[in-house]
Amino acid sequence: MNYVSRFDELLDLNALHNWPIKKQLTPGDVKSGRLIIPVHDVEHYIMPRLPVDKSEKLSRYRGRIFIDVYDVEREIRYNMELVRKMNGRYSLEEWDQVTLTRNIQAGKGIGMSWVNGVLFFRILSG
What we know:
GO molecular function: DNA binding
Number of strands: 8
Strand content: 35-45%
Structural class: alpha+beta
Keywords: DNA-binding, Nucleus, Transcription, Transcription regulation
Subcellular location: Nucleus
Order of helices and strands: EHEHEHHEEEHEE
Main location: nucleus
Protein name: TRANSCRIPTION FACTOR B3-DOMAIN FAMILY-RELATED
């Protein structure tokens, strides 16, 4: 876990309301240690923004890459593995780094945005 100070102020993501990837957390997302990210969001939003070698590696059967994930509210950067599962779905491994420290419950909404090679996220209110 890596702390990054004031990075969100530069990008003003805390005030950003247009989070391109939105998901309601399931009990599995909270308890399994991995966050399932919709296939469409990974393949149409994240992969086109990755360097070609990482995009190709991830698109392979059971592909996996490490990415930086930044908690906008807590100003914490994590390094997590984005994995293409056997069933073609994508998961963000080591997600329990977030759920255990934030006490996030199923049913909460999460917003994600890919900026400058980092997956930013925040818990959405409402």
